[in-house]
Amino acid sequence: MDSGTTAWLLVSAAMVLFMTPGLAFFYGGMDRGRNVLNMLMMSFWCILIIPIVWGLLGYSLAFGGSGTIIGNFDFALLRGMDVTEDGGETLLILVYLGTFASITPALISGAVADRMKFSAWAWFVPLWSLFVYVPVVFWIYGGSGDEGLTGWLGARGSLDFAGGTAIHVNAGIAALAAAFVVGKRKGWPSEGHPPHSMPLVMIGTGILWFGWFGFNAGSALAADGIAVQAFANTFFAAAAGGLAWALLEKVKDGHITNLGAASGIVAGLVAITPAAGFVTGTSAMLIGAAAGIICAFAVSLKFKVGYDDSLDVVGIHLVGGLIGSLLIGLFAEPGALGQDNEAGLFHGGGAGLLQEQFIANAVTIVFSFVVTVIILKVLDAIIGVRVSEEEEETGLDLSQHAETAYNAGETTMGRG
Question: For residue 279, which of 1, 218, 283, 287 is within the disulfide window of CB 3.0 to 4.6 Å?
Answer without folding.
Answer: 283
